[in-house]
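Weekly structure sync, notes
Attendees: PL (lead), two postdocs, one rotation student
Agenda item 3: pending single-chain targets
PL asked that the sequence for the first pending target be pasted directly into the notes so everyone works from the same version. It is reproduced below exactly as submitted, 121 residues in total.
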Amino acid sequence: MAQCRANKEDGTPCERIVGASHSYCYSHDAARAPERARNAAKGGRGRGNGELRGLKTQLRDLADAVLGGSVDRGDAAVVNQIWNTIVRVVEQERKERELVDIEERLARLEGTAATKGRKAG
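Predicted structure, written out during the meeting:
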């Protein structure tokens, strides 16, 4: 199997395996730069971002209220526990979306490989 011909950022050779018709892996193939840019742009667009920004604001407000004496520390602790649970749920949703995306990409790659295999055989 062929290996990517590029060097990594630290100067060592890239060790990724590439298809027979390619010289470079996904990360180093200049022709795939637009695809990499699109995929990278998707990274920060999760629904959870707005929720998390709102939670951060509420946490600051809660901390100020506790420090100012207008909210009981016990009540604040319970609210904080609930918000921690929300953060875990948001993270789990993100992981689930990521897994579905990876499964879809893998299915496309497997389909492409099977098509190429039939053509070669």
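Discussion points:
- Residues 73-120 form the longest helix (48 residues).
- The mean pLDDT is 86.
Action: rotation student to compare against the earlier draft before next sync.
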